[in-house]
Amino acid sequence: MKVRELLDSPEKWIQGEFAVDASGHPVSEISPTACKWCLSGAVYHCYPSDPLCTEVRSKLKSHLSPGPNQYVNLASWNDSPDTTWEMVKDLLDKADV
Q1: C-alpha angle 22/57/19, rounded to 5°?
Q2: Cα–chain-centroid distance for residue 28?
Q3: pTM for the whole thing?
Q4: Are 6 and 95 a contacting pair, CB within 8 Å?
Q5: Which of 15, 42, 74, 95 is deepest in the core (most CB within 10 A)?
Q6: Nearest Cα to 46, choosing from 8, 85, 80?
């Protein structure tokens, strides 16, 4: 499954945690009770193999627009108050992951 298939609606995307369950409690990104993920959590959920996960994360980061805020990782970009669901969706579409 591609990340954009997992995060196919704004209701499935979160900020501040890798994944949460239906009650909003933090859970592992691979937990069967997880129902919402941040971008990084969704990558780990969809690509649990370390080499593939690293490749997908690098591909996503390469599509981040350069600007005054250079994010160290996808989690900090995802959790920025400036990041919107539409930005996440556009990034996933550009990277085709």
Answers
A1: 10
A2: 14
A3: 0.90
A4: no
A5: 42
A6: 8
Mean predicted lDDT score pLDDT of the chain: 92
Helix 50-62 and helix 85-95, axial crossing angle in degrees, nearest 10 = 110
Instruction: Determine how β-strand 36-37 pairs with β-strand 19-20.
Output: antiparallel
Q: What is the pLDDT of residues 14-24, one digit of tens each?
A: 999 999 999 99
Q: Please tell me the distance from the alpha carbon of residue 70 to that of residue 73, in angstroms, as a whole number.
A: 9
